[in-house]
Amino acid sequence: MYAVILAGGSGTRFWPKSRELFPKQLITIAGAKTMLQNTVERILPLVPIENIFVVTNELHAVETCKQLAEYGFNPDRLIAEPAGRNTAPAIGLAAKILSRKTPEAVMGVFPADHVVEDGDSFLNALREAESVALRGYLVTIGIKPTRPETGYGYIKKGPPLDNGGGSFQVERFVEKPDLPSAQRFLEHNGYFWNSGVFLWKVSTILEEIKLRLPELDACLKTLASTVAESQGKYSYRVLGAKGKEIYNSIASISVDYGIMEKSQRVALVPASVRWSDVGSWSALEEVSAKDASGNVFSSNVVSLDCSGSIVQGNDRLIAAVGIKNIVVVDTPDALLVCEKNRSQDVRRLVEKMNEERRPETKVHATVLKPWGSYTVLEKRENYLLKRIEVLPGEKLSLQSHRRRSEHWLVVSGAAEVELDGRKIPLARHQSLDIPQGSKHRLCNPGDAPLTIIETQIGETLEEDDIVRYEDLYGRS
């Protein structure tokens, strides 16, 4: 069996903790692991790491590889999309790649950003679904509802399949219902939440795409031939220039709408597990421990007479008095305050900030890079102050800037600087000027982290003011 983890996401629903360049699947929500890592751990008892593929945006490819390195994940199993086109194209591309060697293998599809508790029951449902998929069905995992939820799609089960197991035909799919309908579904006992987890043979899903999405099928035939390894330290799979052009032109369509709701060979395997798609900040109540007043607080929170509220932060103390049903999320560069019953509207708020070109929707104050990280300490007109941390043995790209000069001061560790063809060692408390237009590179040749303070000076101080000549990570 193979697994394809769909790790798309734009960082809108869990803003400000998630951002465009660091979306929900890459952050920790409940527990010490990220949602992506939890997804991999959940399926590892059934699928070996060498059979796990991840489809993600190329902007998130390196961080995804870094997060999965501890499991022995091979970057060759990562497929980088040039742009998000919903689930059907991502699944189709992964299936096309798998079909080259294992067209009759079962392929499970798993969202990267869901929470599932009771892992043994979930695995048992997957085993049942695998056996049904081998018979040529498109199998969906349905979650037994525990409340009248209006934020999920539903599946109505039909008669049992004839295999004598716990699988059923699907009578119909139901879009997100209103509250009275959701209440009826809960009482009926024949409806299940649509988990977005699917199992099918590679050949089966490709046949369905050819039948029901012929334009996508035509694109996939060309796309598969353009897939190549990226250049640099992490050799994941990317599309060539022609492939990117084709992929960007594909219509955005979900596999639910494009295939599952139309196919005549869909089966349901129910799973009685605690599950959440964690679609908004209010969903933390479903996956986190509450105090006696129904609050979900992170560690450094002091409260008085608060109830039903969600307060999340990092190092800074958060003190709250008398708030009820409020969401507060604190990060170093942005603070969110909203009514809990409007947490779904955070997405609309992010859209508004994007219209205003607010940088806080794209990156955190601390931005993770393949070589380490940088933190913006202060930004004013004509100058910007950063703390740059470089991991042992890593180096930045050989680069130049058209519109700014820089000054580097070593705070800890030892640096080696390439500057216009010269190699210059810098020890702690030593500094160096980087003139505008010069070719330069920062390296950490030591065994300890390197920290420098960078001062940028210029009329325009933007991250896109960079020309790369060499890069370990294949960035241009």
What are the key terms here?
single chain; Spore Coat Polysaccharide Biosynthesis Protein SpsA, Chain A; Jelly Rolls; 6-stranded antiparallel beta sheet; 5-stranded mixed beta barrel; 32% strand
- Tell me the helix content: 10-25%
> What integer is the average pLDDT?
94
Tell me which CATH architecture of the largest domain applies here. Alpha-Beta Complex
**Poorly predicted runs of 5 or more residues:** none
And the CATH topology of the largest domain?
A: Spore Coat Polysaccharide Biosynthesis Protein SpsA, Chain A
Question: What is the highest CATH level, the class of the largest domain?
Answer: Alpha Beta
Number of strands: 30
Radius of gyration: 25 Å
Number of discrete helical segments = 11
Main sheet properties: 6 strands, antiparallel
**Which class of secondary structure composition applies to the elements?**
alpha+beta
Shape: globular
What separation lies between the terminal Cα atoms?
Answer: 36 Å
| CATH-defined superfamily of the largest domain | Spore Coat Polysaccharide Biosynthesis Protein SpsA, Chain A
Strand content: 25-35%
| Overall domain count | 3
Widest beta sheet: strand line-up: 20-21-22-29-24-27
